[in-house]
Amino acid sequence: MEAKISRRKFLKLSGVAAFSPFIRLGDVVSPRTKAPTPTDFGVEKRVPLRCRMCAQQCPAIGIVKDGKLIKMEANPHLPYSGICGRSRSTPAAVYNPDRLKYPLLRVGKRGEGKFKRISWEEALDRIAKVLKKYRKEAPEKVVYLPRFTSAAGIDKPFWHLYGTPNIISYADTCHSAGHDWGLGGYFGRPISPGAVWMDYPNAKFGVLAMRNPGGGLCVYQFGTFFAEGKRNGLRLVSVDVRFPNESIEGAGHRWLPIRPGTDPAFHLALAHVIVKKKGYDEAYLIEKTNACMLIDPETLEPFKAVIEEKEEKKGDKTVKKRTMRYLVWDEAQGKAVFKSQASKPALLGEFEIEGKKVITAFEAISRALERYTPQWAEKITTVPAKEIEAIAEELIKNKPQVFVDTGWYSERYANSLRQFHAIGLVNTLLGCWEKKGGIGGIPKVKLHGVLPKVKKPKRIQITKYYQKKEGYPFIIPKAGRRFVFEALRTGKPYEPKVIFAMGQNFIGGSAGSVELIKLLDKVELIVCMTPFMDESCLYADIILPDTMFPERNEALHVKFKQSFPTVAMNMKAVEPPFEARPGDWVMVELAKRVLFSEEFEKYFGDFVRGGWEYGWRKQLEGLDEKYPGITLERLKKEGVWYGKQNYKIKKKTLTHEIEIFSLTFLETYKKFKEKGYPFAEYANPLPSWAPPFWWEEKKGQLAEDEFILTTGFSPLNSFTGGQTRNNPLLREIWDQIGLDRLWIHPERAQKLGIQDGDVVEVFPAHNPEIRATARVWITPLVHPDALFTYYGVGAGVFSQLKKFLVFLPEHGVNMNHFSKLHFAPLQGGHATQDVIIKIRRA
Fold this sequence. Notes:
Layout: H1 7-13, H2 16-19, E1 44-50, E2 59-65, E3 68-74, H3 85-88, H4 90-94, E4 104-106, E5 115-117, H5 120-137, E6 142-146, H6 155-162, H7 178-184, E7 196-198, E8 205-209, H8 222-231, E9 235-240, H9 245-248, E10 254-257, H10 263-276, H11 282-288, E11 294-295, E12 306-314, E13 317-325, E14 327-330, E15 335-338, E16 350-353, E17 356-360, H12 361-369, H13 374-381, H14 385-398, E18 402-404, H15 416-429, E19 439-441, H16 462-469, H17 482-490, E20 498-502, H18 513-517, E21 525-530, E22 542-545, E23 566-568, H19 583-594, H20 597-620, H21 632-638, E24 640-642, H22 663-674, H23 696-699, E25 706-712, H24 722-725, H25 728-737, E26 742-744, H26 746-752, E27 759-764, E28 772-778, E29 786-790, H27 815-818, E30 836-841
Parallel strand pairs: 6-20, 8-9, 8-18, 9-10, 20-21, 21-22, 25-29, 26-28
Antiparallel strand pairs: 1-2, 2-3, 4-5, 4-22, 7-19, 11-17, 12-13, 14-15, 16-17, 23-24, 25-30, 27-28, 27-30
Helix pairs in contact: 5-19, 7-15, 10-13, 10-14, 10-15, 13-14
């Protein structure tokens, strides 16, 4: 490997040219004009797939020749299609000799990595024996952790029939809490990264904060959309701890390095300038938001608001719809009236009504913003005040065809909830929600279940317990994996006894990895099903070799990150190697062993007899009337169906408006202030600054050998799964471009006597015994307080992985190994970067 990489070479080799999802759209060619290919002559076959080399399931086409997958292409039957370097490396993962080949049984201590080969029959019988015991005693103590599940549509019905409510995803480690409720306060419901889209093609100016659309995880449709925007003249500013080359390289784009974790201060300062210069969209705020709502300035309560309830029919159910009618000051009448009766609601002002002083919600927001000047933000973020002012002026000038990107990977710091609340505020001030050139909503098609509907068990779910009882109201219960380990630590509400992980690397993918493994002695049975060994497998009792996505049929999928409602197919293209089996087969086999015979027949009988042909038709039953063109025949041929683009964002607020003054936040804020909760301020509906680090108030600042370890993605890596981390093709490219390197700023490297290319030991200040090695790249393209590494590249602390994954880079750092098992206030995110990291020459 070269010891020195120039900035120019880094930009050239970083995957933009050969592996970017959007630089070259050669795959998007009309079938009518395409030249004949081997497929036309029957030499090759084209199979509809959904790529699972990361979590996004981009629609793709697998090219198969002589029974082997030889190539991946973007699906051409979409308005915006694209795949990235991860997807193109799929054949190298499918035929990787390091794949798990047979079921394995642990024979040594957990973590030693000692296993013996057993048959599928023995593995399933052993698992079923324990499951049957807990079904009688306490089925809720069995936890199912799906991620890259190969049993979609089959697994959840099985586990609900079994009796456990604990089907828990991993998103608390990436976005589900801080991101989803930070933005969700404006809409009365969680807003995930898959709920909104930036209209890159029609935007004039945008701010990228903690987002790299050219090099992150989503390429369909975000990457290709983003490329079109750049071709159309979209100008960008990226505010990031490191230079995100894939996104902003080119004329007219700027990078501003920011101190790790201080993004909320930057956004609050933007909002300050917008309000001070009256650059907000006044008509939008009055019409679309509750900015004119009259509130008590002392309690923040809406003044004399009225809540009305009425019942509505939704299918077979009757639901109650609650609506708040609130007072505004009508300047035309000179008095307070309900908003629906006002002809000229006041946006700003203080008024006296019946001897009581009241102000508008927007007046309260404006007053709260007064302290958050660009000069204040510069001291915290190191972003110059003049740059903040210039960005705010660009946003004002080009609104509403602007955006502050709503981001993705949020669970980094204790203040992530406040960060995304501040991002939402800026976008609301500019009036760019639901606007062309701004931010739109993502519509979804609702499919039927593959199996008959199963009622969810009434037993208390672990995450719902912590949401209701332990001070984490903004948890997303279905995605709070880390609270499984909190339950092990505290015994509340009970200790899990079985963990069945399908595709989840719950140790390597969670902050506090080293702390987590100490809790696993309380678990009787750990089962991991995955194609590759990972940190969690090292601690499993039974390992089941999973298929990869080209080796199986899957349920139809609708949850894509794009502006069109889409239904996409994944069909089996090649046979699985060795003894790998798909998850749907495993679930059926466990159901035969664990469920009563009449249960099995009622819920699984038709699927077992009809296979996926039956399952797909069941999912599509009756949908062709609402969505013309959705047919199984079309999906088998083209792989996808898509509908019309939409900008509407679904709201569940009491006012049925975008709540710039969040009543969802207000309710939580009042409740926790009354209880004296120390972090109640995190739920303040008004703009509010919160520091990013738990340690900052005690320690003050970093020492010369201390850093904040930060992470990101490129089109050539994702997560901690072996499909990219241990991919021989990607390893060749990584070695050329140094993707496994640790970025260090020249000023800091010089003080520590570190040279470019040196191997260093990396360890957390709170536990120096936990160490990993990394090769450094000295570059000005990273903030001085930060160390930057691409996510999950090497074995890190768990060196025993190297004997199972020979294509792992020699060095590499996984920040989760160093982080702590702590939880961000109110929302429970894992705050993975909230830890001090030290380095020294190895």
